[in-house]
Design a protein that fits this description.
Layout lengths: L7 E5 L4 H12 L3 E6 L2 H15 L6 E5 L5 H15 L6 E4 L14 H27 L4 E6 L16 H24 L3 E8 L2 E2 L2 H10 L5 H13 L10 H18 L2 E2 H13 L4 E4 L1 H12 L16
Parallel strand pairs: 1-2, 1-4, 2-3, 4-5, 5-6, 6-9, 7-8
Helix pairs in contact: 1-2, 1-9, 3-4, 4-5, 7-8
Length: about 325
């Protein structure tokens, strides 16, 4: 798939972050795009930005409310794509949707843990199941599944628990690698790529809370924000009220978006270039590239407290 002009692309989590930038770049390159998200307002902004970029004449964008962690909703999404785009096939499926949370298996709320795992793993699995028939009907197709640096290194940073997200992202990585051989054997017109981003500037923190608990702070959200503050050396975090915690969360998001080593726009470009180059393994960012080398070089030390995960070579 050397170019996307005229192709039918599906992007999950298209309302913000990398998903939004993937939609914008695909549309700019002439692809018809169907995106899903949980929030109509976020997708409307993505469409507005794609139009502001100068959407090519005749290129379609459709928006669909769907929870990727619900198989029935993903099957409905696939049916809506066929109906609204008037096709039986798609060419590109980018499983991008994901949230954070469920850091500790010991301490985290069970409902939050399961929700994170269901979105980050079953969201990929259900999407692939729902759209595989349409991919098989294409003349060429490509599945892109978003794993993470935490798909090969299961910690947020040295000594910091990250169990639900990491478990899901390891599953995504293994599943996608298995698809490479499976497609070669039984559907050679299809390709599969696993994407492993490092630090990408997206509002995943606020998005995750919006998915997990809406606009209200839950006890789990309070503990997560306090944990982040402690991690960065803030004192007396137990005394902070909800207004202070929400302000701190917004500051985290702003800081992360501006200081992350890779922008969402750059991440989307790397991913789409990887598809064109038919790379099955797409590392996004210099930080994750360094981390990959370090974990491979010394796997037995990868979870020691003094492991220099993102240190320069």
């Amino acid at each position: 798939m050397k170019d996307f002009n005229g192709k039918i692309a599906v992007v999950t989590g298209g309302g913000t972050g990398m998903g939004r930038e993937l939609v914008r770049q695909l549309v700019a390159q002439g692809a018809h795009v169907a995106m899903c998200d949980l929030f109509a307002d976020a997708m409307a902004e993505t469409v507005r930005l794609a139009d502001a970029d100068g959407r090519p004449q005749g290129v379609r964008i459709t928006s669909h409310i769907a929870d990727v962690g619900d198989e029935e909703q993903m099957n409905r999404f696939a049916a809506e794509v066929a109906r609204d785009h008037g096709v039986e096939h798609i060419n590109l499926l980018i499983n991008n949707a994901g949230i954070g949370g469920g850091g500790s298996f010991v301490l985290a709320d069970r409902a939050e843990w399961d929700r994170v795992f269901n979105i980050c793993w079953f969201g990929v699995y259900y999407s692939c199941r729902a759209f595989l028939p349409a991919l098989l009907k294409s003349d060429e197709g490509h599945i892109v599944n978003t794993s993470s640096a935490n798909g090969f290194w299961a910690a947020l940073m040295p000594g910091v628990s990250h169990t639900a997200y990491s478990a899901a992202k390891f599953a995504v990585k293994g599943f996608t690698e298995a698809l490479v051989t499976d497609f070669r054997n039984y559907a050679p017109h299809l390709k599969a790529s696993v994407v492993m981003p490092g630090g990408v500037g997206t509002p995943i923190g606020i998005n995750s809370r919006r998915v997990l608990s809406g606009d209200e702070l839950t006890d789990a959200a309070r503990e997560r924000i306090r944990g982040q503050l402690k991690m960065f050396g803030t004192k007396d975090v137990e005394a902070l009220d909800d207004a202070a915690l929400e302000a701190a969360e917004k500051e985290f998001v702003k800081r992360f978006e501006t200081m992350a080593s890779t922008t969402a726009t750059r991440a989307a470009t790397i991913i789409l270039d990887g598809v064109k180059d038919e790379r099955w393994r797409i590392l996004v960012g210099d930080d994750v590239t360094r981390l990959d080398r370090r974990v491979r070089a010394d796997p037995e030390r990868a979870y020691e407290p003094n492991f220099e995960a993102y240190a320069p070579d």
